[in-house]
Amino acid sequence: MAACREPEVGAVLEEARRAFHKEFGSEPTLAVSAPGRVNLIGEHTDYNDGLVLPMALELVTVLVGIPRLDGLISLVTTSEYADEPRRVEFPVPTAEQPLEPGIPRWANYVKGVIQHYPAGPLPGFNAVVASSVPLGGGLSSSASLEVATYTFLQQLCPDSGAVTMRAQVCQRAEHSFAGVPCGIMDQLISLSGQKGHALLLDCRSLETCPVPLSDPGVAVLITNSNVRHSLGSSEYPIRRRQCDSAAKALGKKSLREVDMKDLEAGKELLTKEEFRRARHIVGEIQRTSEAAAALSASDYKTFGRLMVESHNSLRDDYEVSCPELDQLVMLALSVPGVYGSRMTGGGFGGCTVTLLEASAATRAMQHIQERYKGTATFYLSKAADGAKVQPL
Ligand code: ADP
Ligand code: MG
Of these residues, 49, 186, 215, 244, which one is catalytic? Predict the structure, then answer.
């Protein structure tokens, strides 16, 4: 039988508490959690002011900690992380001595949020990070770490911002401290996910609209390809630039302002590659809007068809898929009871997401595991809540 992970917040919290006791010799007094996410449809649209339809996962990053009075911050992660230290210590930033990114790289996500946190003064603290979100798997462990950090800092020094401002602070942290020019989706969904709902996010207005997804007869299966091609990090900024230059050539602020008719009419103004990139974005925004309507109407068949169209467009026009993701999607689609499947996240590895009849989940996992050329890991997750304070 294929292994399926269904980790509970409680288990991650317990792991963090144990590690805290071991590292700091005391009990933590504060605990927060922030979920990873899977994007059901709307890929690479977020940085084009477009629509996305993610849901928060039961997979979470947890921070437990305790304030300290000497102005130092001491951080530990329980995650296996490259060969860099798992513990790091630095002073609370001041106007004269701001934080800067450095080694270990994992701490940059935390440091960035501390540096950009809009309230103060912050005290020092000891904290342990533990997570059930796979690192680098496309389920946004990075945003869950940023949002968990933000939520932890709120316990030390309350802020007074709106949720969109919080998401922007976390996004800025990822831009300036991790060097990843990500959109706003991951941080927004990790902050404002709602149990039993996907969330339609308009990345132009930052408006959110919950879409019910709690039918017990339907399941969301995430399949981790367990590959990550290095191409991803270099191609992502290239795609962003291509989208920006396509919009500019068409005289628009962003590709959100462009429809298929505009695009066809302006074809001559774009390079062939820009045209295909733009066609993915314009089509994907339209598909996402249709998919949200289909989900609201419990029309899973239509939703599934749109997922497949999304995958094909990401593979052929946007060129961010890879053979492993294509194989996982094909395998899923050959299982009876599967409505649709597609790559999810930035691409070049990571995960696929499959919408299927709940009763078909075991069959699908078995089928995929037996035939996939690599080793797949599965997550069956319901749509979960966003970040919260956890009782200790
Ligand atoms: P994804 O967000 O898809 O998981 P990213 O490459 O954006 O992938 O982010 C993964 C990085 O985030 C890790 O390499 C690590 O630096 C950092 N990270 C995320 N969660 C943790 C954690 N629990 N402990 C330490 N670092 C983490
Ligand atoms: Mg990430």
Answer: 186
What rounded mean pLDDT belongs to the chain? 95
Question: Ligand 1 within 6 A of 275 CB?
Answer: no
Could you tell me which of 137, 133, 93 has the C-alpha nearest to residue 111? 93
If pLDDT is split at 50, 70 and 90, which confidence band does 5 have?
Answer: low
Q: What is the pTM of this model?
A: 0.93
Verify whether ligand 1 is closer than 6 Å to residue 232 (CB atom). no
Provide the percentage of residues in the chain whose pLDDT is more than 90. Answer: 91
For the CA of 105, the nearest atom of ligand 1: 16
The answer, yes or no, to whether any atom of ligand 1 lies below 6 A from the CB of 344, is no
Decide if 202 is catalytic: no
